[in-house]
Model the fold of this input.
Amino acid sequence: MKTAMTYAEFAAREAAGESPAYEALAAAVSRDDRLLALLDSLPPAKRQPNLLFAVVQFLGGPVTDPAAFLNFAAEHWPEVESHIRTRATQTNEPARCALLLPVLAALPQPLALLEVGASAGLNLFPDRYSYRYGDHLLGAGDEPVLDCALTGVAPPSRVPEVVWRAGLDLNPLDVTDPADAAWLQALIWPEQEHRRARLRAAARIAAAERPHLVRGDLVDDLPALAAQAPPGVTLVIFHTSVLYQVPEPRRQAFVDLVRDLPAHWVAVENPTVISHGNLPPPPDATLHNVLALDGKPQAWARAHGDGLTWFA
Done:
Protein backbone atom coordinates (compact mmCIF):
# COMPACT_ATOMS: atom_id res chain seq x y z
CA MET A 1 0.00 0.00 0.00
CA LYS A 2 2.84 2.42 0.82
CA THR A 3 4.45 1.89 -2.60
CA ALA A 4 1.11 2.47 -4.32
CA MET A 5 0.70 5.72 -2.38
CA THR A 6 4.23 6.80 -3.33
CA TYR A 7 3.42 6.41 -7.02
CA ALA A 8 0.01 8.08 -6.69
CA GLU A 9 1.58 11.04 -4.89
CA PHE A 10 4.33 11.28 -7.52
CA ALA A 11 1.67 11.47 -10.21
CA ALA A 12 -0.27 14.18 -8.39
CA ARG A 13 2.48 16.34 -6.92
CA GLU A 14 5.60 15.89 -9.06
CA ALA A 15 4.64 14.81 -12.56
CA ALA A 16 1.33 16.70 -12.87
CA GLY A 17 1.89 19.73 -15.07
CA GLU A 18 5.47 18.66 -15.76
CA SER A 19 5.27 15.33 -17.58
CA PRO A 20 1.95 13.87 -18.79
CA ALA A 21 3.79 10.64 -19.63
CA TYR A 22 5.19 10.14 -16.13
CA GLU A 23 1.94 11.27 -14.54
CA ALA A 24 0.15 8.50 -16.46
CA LEU A 25 2.86 5.91 -15.72
CA ALA A 26 2.89 6.64 -12.00
CA ALA A 27 -0.90 6.46 -11.77
CA ALA A 28 -0.88 3.15 -13.67
CA VAL A 29 1.81 1.64 -11.43
CA SER A 30 -0.12 2.70 -8.32
CA ARG A 31 -3.01 0.48 -9.49
CA ASP A 32 -1.02 -2.48 -10.83
CA ASP A 33 -0.75 -5.24 -8.24
CA ARG A 34 1.74 -7.26 -10.29
CA LEU A 35 4.33 -4.49 -10.59
CA LEU A 36 3.74 -3.26 -7.04
CA ALA A 37 4.57 -6.74 -5.74
CA LEU A 38 7.80 -6.75 -7.75
CA LEU A 39 8.72 -3.28 -6.47
CA ASP A 40 8.03 -4.34 -2.88
CA SER A 41 10.71 -7.03 -3.25
CA LEU A 42 13.27 -4.20 -3.48
CA PRO A 43 14.75 -2.20 -0.61
CA PRO A 44 12.50 0.81 0.14
CA ALA A 45 14.99 3.33 -1.26
CA LYS A 46 14.96 1.50 -4.61
CA ARG A 47 11.19 1.66 -5.16
CA GLN A 48 11.08 5.32 -6.21
CA PRO A 49 9.29 6.25 -9.45
CA ASN A 50 12.15 8.24 -10.98
CA LEU A 51 14.52 5.27 -10.72
CA LEU A 52 12.09 2.74 -12.21
CA PHE A 53 11.10 5.03 -15.07
CA ALA A 54 14.71 5.97 -15.86
CA VAL A 55 15.79 2.31 -15.95
CA VAL A 56 13.01 1.38 -18.39
CA GLN A 57 13.86 4.40 -20.53
CA PHE A 58 17.58 3.47 -20.38
CA LEU A 59 16.73 -0.07 -21.54
CA GLY A 60 14.76 1.26 -24.50
CA GLY A 61 11.38 0.36 -23.07
CA PRO A 62 8.15 2.32 -23.65
CA VAL A 63 7.56 5.27 -21.31
CA THR A 64 4.66 7.02 -23.05
CA ASP A 65 2.19 4.11 -23.11
CA PRO A 66 1.20 2.96 -19.59
CA ALA A 67 -0.05 -0.50 -20.64
CA ALA A 68 3.06 -1.19 -22.72
CA PHE A 69 5.24 0.11 -19.88
CA LEU A 70 3.64 -2.20 -17.31
CA ASN A 71 4.09 -5.21 -19.59
CA PHE A 72 7.70 -4.34 -20.42
CA ALA A 73 8.66 -3.82 -16.77
CA ALA A 74 7.08 -7.10 -15.66
CA GLU A 75 8.31 -9.20 -18.59
CA HIS A 76 11.87 -7.81 -18.36
CA TRP A 77 11.90 -7.65 -14.56
CA PRO A 78 15.22 -9.50 -13.99
CA GLU A 79 17.05 -6.95 -16.16
CA VAL A 80 15.05 -4.02 -14.78
CA GLU A 81 15.68 -5.18 -11.21
CA SER A 82 19.41 -5.57 -11.83
CA HIS A 83 19.72 -1.98 -13.03
CA ILE A 84 17.54 -0.64 -10.22
CA ARG A 85 19.71 -2.36 -7.62
CA THR A 86 23.01 -1.14 -9.12
CA ARG A 87 22.04 2.38 -10.21
CA ALA A 88 20.87 5.49 -8.39
CA THR A 89 18.80 8.52 -9.27
CA GLN A 90 21.67 10.85 -10.12
CA THR A 91 19.67 13.51 -11.93
CA ASN A 92 22.29 16.15 -12.73
CA GLU A 93 20.04 19.11 -13.49
CA PRO A 94 22.22 22.19 -14.16
CA ALA A 95 19.18 24.48 -13.80
CA ARG A 96 19.43 23.94 -10.05
CA CYS A 97 22.33 26.41 -10.21
CA ALA A 98 19.65 29.09 -10.69
CA LEU A 99 18.38 28.17 -7.22
CA LEU A 100 21.85 28.39 -5.71
CA LEU A 101 22.90 31.62 -7.42
CA PRO A 102 21.16 34.17 -5.14
CA VAL A 103 22.95 32.64 -2.15
CA LEU A 104 26.32 32.05 -3.83
CA ALA A 105 26.46 35.56 -5.29
CA ALA A 106 25.85 37.13 -1.86
CA LEU A 107 28.71 35.31 -0.11
CA PRO A 108 32.22 36.78 0.19
CA GLN A 109 34.10 36.08 -3.02
CA PRO A 110 35.96 34.14 -4.35
CA LEU A 111 34.39 30.76 -3.68
CA ALA A 112 35.55 27.17 -3.38
CA LEU A 113 32.65 24.85 -4.19
CA LEU A 114 32.24 21.31 -2.87
CA GLU A 115 29.15 19.43 -3.95
CA VAL A 116 27.92 16.38 -2.06
CA GLY A 117 26.16 13.91 -4.35
CA ALA A 118 27.74 15.56 -7.37
CA SER A 119 26.78 12.98 -10.02
CA ALA A 120 28.73 14.24 -13.07
CA GLY A 121 29.52 17.60 -11.47
CA LEU A 122 27.37 19.81 -13.71
CA ASN A 123 26.23 21.94 -10.77
CA LEU A 124 29.84 22.83 -10.00
CA PHE A 125 29.85 25.41 -12.83
CA PRO A 126 27.46 28.18 -11.71
CA ASP A 127 29.98 30.74 -12.97
CA ARG A 128 29.94 29.27 -16.50
CA TYR A 129 26.18 29.41 -17.12
CA SER A 130 23.83 32.23 -18.08
CA TYR A 131 20.66 32.99 -16.14
CA ARG A 132 17.29 34.57 -16.86
CA TYR A 133 15.16 35.64 -13.90
CA GLY A 134 12.16 37.13 -15.66
CA ASP A 135 13.58 40.01 -17.73
CA HIS A 136 16.87 40.03 -15.81
CA LEU A 137 19.72 38.35 -17.72
CA LEU A 138 23.01 37.40 -16.10
CA GLY A 139 26.10 35.98 -17.76
CA ALA A 140 27.29 36.10 -21.34
CA GLY A 141 24.06 34.71 -22.77
CA ASP A 142 25.77 31.56 -24.03
CA GLU A 143 24.12 28.16 -23.68
CA PRO A 144 22.89 26.93 -21.37
CA VAL A 145 20.63 29.79 -20.29
CA LEU A 146 18.87 28.82 -17.07
CA ASP A 147 15.37 30.24 -16.67
CA CYS A 148 13.99 30.64 -13.15
CA ALA A 149 10.86 32.41 -11.93
CA LEU A 150 12.11 34.35 -8.90
CA THR A 151 9.72 36.01 -6.45
CA GLY A 152 10.18 37.73 -3.11
CA VAL A 153 13.76 38.91 -3.63
CA ALA A 154 15.72 40.90 -6.20
CA PRO A 155 17.67 38.80 -8.69
CA PRO A 156 21.42 38.53 -8.11
CA SER A 157 23.57 41.15 -9.81
CA ARG A 158 26.55 38.92 -10.57
CA VAL A 159 27.66 35.36 -11.05
CA PRO A 160 30.04 34.03 -8.41
CA GLU A 161 33.80 33.92 -8.78
CA VAL A 162 34.79 30.26 -8.40
CA VAL A 163 38.47 29.39 -7.94
CA TRP A 164 38.14 25.74 -6.85
CA ARG A 165 35.48 23.11 -7.41
CA ALA A 166 35.18 19.49 -6.31
CA GLY A 167 32.47 16.88 -6.00
CA LEU A 168 31.89 13.87 -3.76
CA ASP A 169 29.74 10.94 -4.85
CA LEU A 170 29.44 7.21 -4.18
CA ASN A 171 29.50 6.69 -7.95
CA PRO A 172 30.74 9.75 -9.87
CA LEU A 173 29.60 9.92 -13.48
CA ASP A 174 31.74 10.99 -16.43
CA VAL A 175 30.01 13.05 -19.13
CA THR A 176 32.54 11.78 -21.69
CA ASP A 177 31.65 8.13 -21.00
CA PRO A 178 28.85 7.01 -23.38
CA ALA A 179 27.14 4.78 -20.80
CA ASP A 180 27.18 7.50 -18.14
CA ALA A 181 25.94 10.07 -20.64
CA ALA A 182 23.10 7.74 -21.66
CA TRP A 183 22.10 7.25 -18.02
CA LEU A 184 22.03 11.03 -17.44
CA GLN A 185 19.77 11.40 -20.48
CA ALA A 186 17.49 8.57 -19.28
CA LEU A 187 16.94 10.43 -16.00
CA ILE A 188 15.24 13.28 -17.87
CA TRP A 189 11.47 13.03 -18.24
CA PRO A 190 10.21 12.10 -21.72
CA GLU A 191 8.69 15.35 -23.01
CA GLN A 192 11.37 17.65 -21.63
CA GLU A 193 13.60 18.19 -24.63
CA HIS A 194 14.64 21.59 -23.27
CA ARG A 195 16.23 19.78 -20.33
CA ARG A 196 18.04 17.39 -22.67
CA ALA A 197 19.44 20.33 -24.64
CA ARG A 198 20.44 22.02 -21.38
CA LEU A 199 22.17 18.85 -20.20
CA ARG A 200 24.13 18.56 -23.45
CA ALA A 201 25.26 22.19 -23.22
CA ALA A 202 26.35 21.82 -19.60
CA ALA A 203 28.10 18.53 -20.40
CA ARG A 204 30.20 20.28 -23.04
CA ILE A 205 31.44 22.69 -20.37
CA ALA A 206 32.21 19.86 -17.94
CA ALA A 207 34.01 17.90 -20.66
CA ALA A 208 36.22 20.90 -21.49
CA GLU A 209 37.01 21.69 -17.85
CA ARG A 210 36.85 18.35 -16.06
CA PRO A 211 35.60 18.77 -12.49
CA HIS A 212 37.51 17.10 -9.67
CA LEU A 213 35.14 14.29 -8.67
CA VAL A 214 35.98 11.97 -5.80
CA ARG A 215 34.38 8.60 -5.14
CA GLY A 216 33.49 8.54 -1.48
CA ASP A 217 31.00 8.72 1.39
CA LEU A 218 29.34 11.97 2.43
CA VAL A 219 30.39 11.48 6.06
CA ASP A 220 33.61 9.48 6.02
CA ASP A 221 35.29 11.31 3.15
CA LEU A 222 33.92 14.86 3.32
CA PRO A 223 36.41 16.39 5.80
CA ALA A 224 39.47 15.29 3.81
CA LEU A 225 38.07 16.69 0.56
CA ALA A 226 37.02 19.95 2.24
CA ALA A 227 40.55 20.31 3.58
CA GLN A 228 41.84 20.44 -0.01
CA ALA A 229 40.14 23.79 -0.66
CA PRO A 230 42.65 26.62 -1.02
CA PRO A 231 43.10 28.97 1.94
CA GLY A 232 41.74 32.50 1.93
CA VAL A 233 38.55 31.72 0.00
CA THR A 234 34.95 31.03 1.02
CA LEU A 235 34.29 27.32 1.07
CA VAL A 236 30.70 26.37 0.24
CA ILE A 237 29.49 22.79 0.73
CA PHE A 238 26.19 22.23 -1.07
CA HIS A 239 23.78 19.53 -2.21
CA THR A 240 20.47 19.42 -4.10
CA SER A 241 17.90 16.61 -3.80
CA VAL A 242 20.44 14.15 -2.42
CA LEU A 243 19.70 13.36 1.20
CA TYR A 244 16.40 11.56 0.56
CA GLN A 245 18.55 8.68 -0.72
CA VAL A 246 20.58 8.56 2.52
CA PRO A 247 19.29 6.48 5.48
CA GLU A 248 18.15 8.71 8.34
CA PRO A 249 20.93 7.93 10.87
CA ARG A 250 23.59 8.58 8.22
CA ARG A 251 21.75 11.71 7.10
CA GLN A 252 21.83 13.08 10.64
CA ALA A 253 25.53 12.26 10.93
CA PHE A 254 26.14 14.30 7.77
CA VAL A 255 24.13 17.26 9.08
CA ASP A 256 26.03 17.20 12.37
CA LEU A 257 29.33 17.02 10.50
CA VAL A 258 28.71 19.74 7.93
CA ARG A 259 27.54 22.18 10.59
CA ASP A 260 30.96 21.95 12.25
CA LEU A 261 33.13 22.27 9.15
CA PRO A 262 34.71 25.67 8.37
CA ALA A 263 32.37 26.31 5.45
CA HIS A 264 29.01 27.70 4.47
CA TRP A 265 26.39 25.00 3.95
CA VAL A 266 23.77 25.35 1.21
CA ALA A 267 21.05 22.70 0.99
CA VAL A 268 18.13 22.29 -1.41
CA GLU A 269 16.15 19.37 -0.02
CA ASN A 270 12.62 18.16 0.61
CA PRO A 271 11.33 19.53 3.94
CA THR A 272 10.59 15.96 5.06
CA VAL A 273 14.31 15.19 4.73
CA ILE A 274 15.72 18.13 6.68
CA SER A 275 13.30 19.48 9.27
CA HIS A 276 13.17 23.27 9.57
CA GLY A 277 10.32 23.67 12.02
CA ASN A 278 7.68 26.20 11.04
CA LEU A 279 7.73 27.09 7.35
CA PRO A 280 5.35 29.35 5.41
CA PRO A 281 2.90 27.56 3.10
CA PRO A 282 4.42 26.57 -0.26
CA PRO A 283 3.27 28.49 -3.34
CA ASP A 284 1.03 25.65 -4.54
CA ALA A 285 0.32 21.94 -4.08
CA THR A 286 3.16 20.72 -6.30
CA LEU A 287 6.38 19.48 -4.75
CA HIS A 288 8.72 22.17 -3.45
CA ASN A 289 12.07 21.78 -1.76
CA VAL A 290 13.59 24.19 0.75
CA LEU A 291 16.67 26.26 -0.01
CA ALA A 292 18.61 26.74 3.21
CA LEU A 293 21.85 28.53 4.09
CA ASP A 294 23.75 27.29 7.14
CA GLY A 295 20.65 25.46 8.29
CA LYS A 296 18.36 28.51 7.98
CA PRO A 297 15.53 28.21 5.42
CA GLN A 298 15.50 30.90 2.75
CA ALA A 299 13.05 29.96 0.00
CA TRP A 300 10.77 27.38 -1.61
CA ALA A 301 12.51 25.84 -4.62
CA ARG A 302 11.14 23.87 -7.56
CA ALA A 303 12.86 20.51 -7.96
CA HIS A 304 14.22 21.14 -11.47
CA GLY A 305 15.33 24.71 -10.82
CA ASP A 306 12.59 26.63 -12.65
CA GLY A 307 11.10 28.47 -9.66
CA LEU A 308 12.29 30.08 -6.42
CA THR A 309 9.96 31.77 -3.93
CA TRP A 310 11.81 33.68 -1.23
CA PHE A 311 10.43 33.76 2.29
CA ALA A 312 9.30 37.15 3.58
Remarks:
- The chain has two domains: 2-86, 94-310.
